[in-house]
Amino acid sequence: MGAYVLRRLGYGVGVALGVLFLLFVLFFTVTAPDDIARKALGEKAPQVAVEQWKANHGYDRPLWPWQDWDDNLLFDHYTKMLTFDFGLSDADDAPIMDRIQAGMGPSLSLTVPLLFLGLIVAIPISLLVAFFRETYIDRMGVFICVLAMSVSTLLYIIGAQFLIGKILRWYPISGFDADPLLLPRFLALPIIVGLMSGIGGDVRFYRTVFLEESARDFVRTARAKGAGEARIMSHHVLRNALIPILTRVVLAIPFLFTGSILLEAFFGIPGLGSITVDAIRANDFSTLRTMVFIGSLLFVLGQLATDLSYGFVDPRVRFE
Amino acid sequence: MMGLAPHMLSNLVVLALLVGLLGLSRWVRRRRIWLESAQAIWQRRRLAIVVIAAYLSIALLDSVAWVGGVPEGVADVLPNQSLSVLDRLFLDTREASYSAPFADFEWTGGEALRHPGSHVLGTDILGRDVLYLALKGARVALLIGGLTSLISIPLALLFGVTAGYFGGRFDDFVFFLISTLASMPGLLLLIALIMALGKGTFSVCLALGVTGWVGFCRLSRAETLKLRELDYVEAARALGVSEVRIIFRHVLPNLAHLIVITFVLTFSALVLSEAVLSWLGIGVDGSWGQMIDGARNELSRDPIIWWNIGAAGAALFGLILAVNSVGDAIRDVLDPRTARTSE
Amino acid sequence: MSGGHLEARRGRGAAVLAAVVCALVACSNDPYPPGDEGALVYYSSFVDPPRTLDPATAYSSRAHAVTGAVYDTLLKYHYLKRPLELIPGLVESLPEVVDLGEGRSLYRFRLREDLLFHDDPCFELGGEGRRTREIESADVAYQIARLADPEVGSPVIEPFSNVLGFMDFAEALAERRGADPEFAALRAHEQYAAIGGMAGVRTPDRYALEIELARPYPQIVYWFAMEFTTPVPWEAIEYYDGEEGRPRFADHPVGCGPFQLTVYDKQARWVLEKSENWYGVRHPEWRAPAAVYPSDGTDEQRALGLLDRAGEPLPLIDRVEVRREKESIPRFTKFLQGYYDGSGIAKESFDQVIQDGALSPDMVDKGVFLSRTIEPVVFYLGFNMDDEIVGSADGEKSRKLRQAMSLVIDGEEFLRIFTNGRGMAAQSPLPPAIYGYDADYENAYRRVDVERAKQLMVEAGYPGGLDPSTGEALRLVFSSYNTTTAGLLQYQWYTQAWRQLGIDVEIEATNYNQFQEKVRRGALQVFEFGWGADYPDPENFLFLFWSEMSRVRHGGPNETNFSNEEFDRLFVSMKTRPNGPERLAEIRRLIEIVEEEAVWIPIFHRETYALYHGWIGQSLDYGISIPTYQFRSVDPALRTEKRADWNAPITWPAWLLLFAFVAVVAPGIVTYWKERQ
């Protein structure tokens, strides 16, 4: 078991290193340190100021380690990330860690309720639909799912803001306030939109899982023995379907932290997603690599968690 | 390409597509399994298939183009410009700016239109006929879905099948590659790739393809692992048949149903993600996503300008819904797991 | 089914119902916390946070929205007079100008006495328990030294390099820092003092400031109306270094202006509060020109109500609350709901607001009023004069091509389609409100004359747009950095216009970096750009055509790399000539040269329409990014009343939805019951 964990861990570290490399290559293929400087200083900055900015921020060194193995941007990139020395943002010299901590709250306040509400809404519906398979409810349900999935999230956002925020005036169109009394009001619209755009795919997935489980032999046996369909659904099927459902949820956990880029942008939520997009737009390399690194670490950890839980549940895996 | 004008290339591709489709239909007719599956799908989703066929024909209309044959005095046409069939149907229909569907006068300013009453879906901010723009978007959408899949599916098969079949170090390497790509935020990867490759349909398709092959790669790898253990495959190996032959004759054909399912299901996801790319400014010119992005703010006008975003949204929705529907049916019919449970 | 399950289901159902009811009842679209109803607060919004609030480096209108309120300047612009006129701010009177001969000049300023900085803990560095201190001319000298400091990296080195010893100071500082580690460890202001300060910046006594210029640059006075020369306390620079949980100076301004920044959450919200330390609040008896609402204005302004608060001490409000709004539609909608006091008009909302050239009845009913300003900004299409086809290399041929291309672009039509008619079609690079602007001037190539354009194409050697060397339509490249769909639509409009000449213009929209890269290398043909005035002098626009400012050769803002002997000669003369008929004649001739060469296709001068609610007093915009919060007035009671009026939630659709939901689910439940039987 220990060897298994170590191997997986080492693997995860390898992936994180690979991600860092890929990011470095991609970013510097399209952007030069001069561009980072200009974005930070403003359009009217003269070349002298640009050179000075680069010197102040360490970008006046070569990209690759060909000349000097320990005094180049690639080496810096790796050492800083692996020691979790995130440093200052290139765009405005603000400490990145502070901004991440400030942004985590808003992102989580949106994604966590969304995840739970998604489960609470989707699972009963798909149970219901699977229960009534082949009847009009099943067909209606699947059709509505496909319908819901076929609308672009952009259109959902535009529609919801227009209808609910403007015409019906139920909730503010956008904005954010950390005050716990006011927060629900601001989260209402993005959560509604998130639910609408996600529910189609979720229900279909859970329905498939439930259908698969309910066709299994032991379930057929239970039916033959005369157990009620409802009890079968809620006891046998649901319990066994929990594994794939939980896998899906656990795999989604890393993305809770990275936030939803579209929702945050349109609804003005100052979370990690908007930090990432802003960093891309401003060529803020130090913030961008921190976000990507953290994101990939979380992803790797999530994978590890799922693998380990399989290891516990399924003895065959342990002995590989 | 060897002095070939772009419209000639497009014409040749259309020809190749038609020939390919013909060949495919003959091949399907000969194989009983495929024939039965096709008939079952047709049974279930007649409307959706007709809709898709309609979109396809519109896209084809826009792909066949030639130079010349334009009457004198038509504005906006350059001397040696190639125009498609669709272009020619809507030649010289431009106004100055917005107008409502079937209107006789301009939306702002109230001046008389050049072609009063002839714009079924109105005109956009530059005066272009909205029906024309929506129809033109069909080709772009099908290109995005089709070309990207043409890039991502072979890529996924290449890595997935060889990883699953040969295993060992290569498998480890592929798995590593997949994990690395999967843990980078897709949007980031896309933006960087498109900026590096430059704008244009091909770059966007390439970028989407390169970032999207991971899912199917995992799937084909898992399937190949199972297939490798099959009796007749083991027998073939024992008999000394070359690995390559085994892959092409035994493994790939058994993946065919998965390829079809994946192609159809990811098609809609690709077109939808292009809409988001348009919002970020790196989408493809002329796509519905771009129309939506350009027109989304018009909804708050009073009175509302709805025909622009309505047409693009409806066209997008129609295609995606049809493809998703058919995709569902295909999966129900072809995938052995769900085929069993729908008894 | 066991009883336990049934109860569990009932329990869950009740919870859901309760949540729904709660959500319905808690309905309200008010984004502000309760309690502010009676306060003299002004509510506004911002799109993106400023990169920095350091007055030495902040150079965007976003940053100026804050720094302009928090940092006060030696000179200010009169609120109502147009063209803009300087008045004393922190100084007692306008500077005395002394000509020292040989091109050198001296400017003498005298700061008022008993001016205080805002209360701030950083002043503890100067003594236990100190919360503020008096402002001295040394604080201004300190800031000017910071402008030269390479580690600060200010972008306005160029105009200040005219100050005697400015560049020498910068070099000496860098050299000493590199050579002497002990020196480098000193505090910044100690370093500046140790190398003897700047030769051209002197402080003969506590309140006197002398600025000596090595070269003639009369426009230097305008820079003293900008935050770049505000007094900055060294304590703030040393204290706000980002260590031990303290913010950095770039995020924590310590100024002396009418407002103090009390809340600064960059991503979401910032708040300005009236400062008790500001001289206008502490010494209203001074009746300082920049601390009192002006009493002199035109009759037109009087009729508008702009002189209603004449003579009253500033600021007229206590607080400014600014929230982040990234997208334009939500921003405008909130304005309509009364949650923002002022707003621009998003293009899409234009018809709702303006009908037949005036405010719509809807808006008038709401009590909204409109304020229009033509900004000293010009948007233009430029030709790269170094390019072989469109540039001056081809001499007369390319000139005719440029003129032809200019003759088919209809500025009025552009405004009609893309800006709802807001703006003024440009005839020359100079916008209104700049000295030398001539309202009657007509640019011969800014009319639409397709026939003449086609004729010019023939003369240029491209009959019908055909390029004789390729036999096909002449192909040009249009470069831009606006990749949004909205920008693309504008470019398509241009290219469609040029199609009338038969030329094929390809649009190359890249991101800003790549665009700047192309500009620096001179790898452009046709491009779109804009320029806004820093100060109201024509030199600030015409220097864009000066060969010394060429982008490729000197890294300056002459993006077209235009180079013309006559122009250069006249420009150098016009630059330093005082206003008068001779100067006007030179300006006129300079503009004519630019017109004849068709270096630019000037498209339009932007006009901002600003909407304000009826509970806000009339206001006038400067046009250059100087905030006017101190001149705003508010009627809070009226505001509270209107907000409540306009924002009652509509709840009947919720009940309808609930009913519809039940209607759909009921048959399913019935089926289930039947099956149980």
Describe what this molecule looks like in 3D.
The complex is a heterotrimer of chains A (320), B (343) and C (677). Chain A has helices at 2-30, 33-41, 47-57, 73-82, 96-131, 136-149, 153-167, 183-214, 217-224, 229-258, 261-267, 272-281, 285-313, 315-318. Chain A is mainly alpha-helical and 320 residues long. In chain A, helix 5 packs across helix 8 (183-214). Chain B is mostly helical and 343 residues long. A two-stranded antiparallel sheet of chain B has the order 1-2. Chain B is elongated and about 80 Å long. Chain C is of the alpha+beta class. Chain C has 4 domains: 3-27 and 649-676; 33-47 and 292-375 and 606-647, D-Maltodextrin-Binding Protein, domain 2, CATH 3.40.190; 48-256, D-Maltodextrin-Binding Protein, domain 2 (3-Layer(aba) Sandwich); 377-599, Roll (Dipeptide-binding Protein, domain 3). In chain C, helix 15 packs antiparallel against helix 17 (450-460). Chains in contact: A-B, A-C, B-C. At the A-C interface, helix 2, helix 3, helix 5, helix 7 and helix 8 of A face helix 12, helix 19 and helix 25 of C.
Please give a handful of descriptors for the protein shown.
heterotrimer; A: 320 residues; mainly alpha; globular; C: 677 residues; alpha+beta; D-Maltodextrin-Binding Protein, domain 2; 6-stranded mixed beta sheet; 4-stranded mixed beta sheet; 25 helices; disordered N terminus
What is the average of the pLDDT values of chain A?
79
**What's the total helix number of chain A?**
14
Residue fraction in strands of chain A: under 5%
CATH topology of the domain at 132-323 in chain B: MetI-like fold
Distance between the termini of chain A: 9 Å
Q: Biggest sheet of chain B: strands, sense, closure?
A: 2 strands, antiparallel
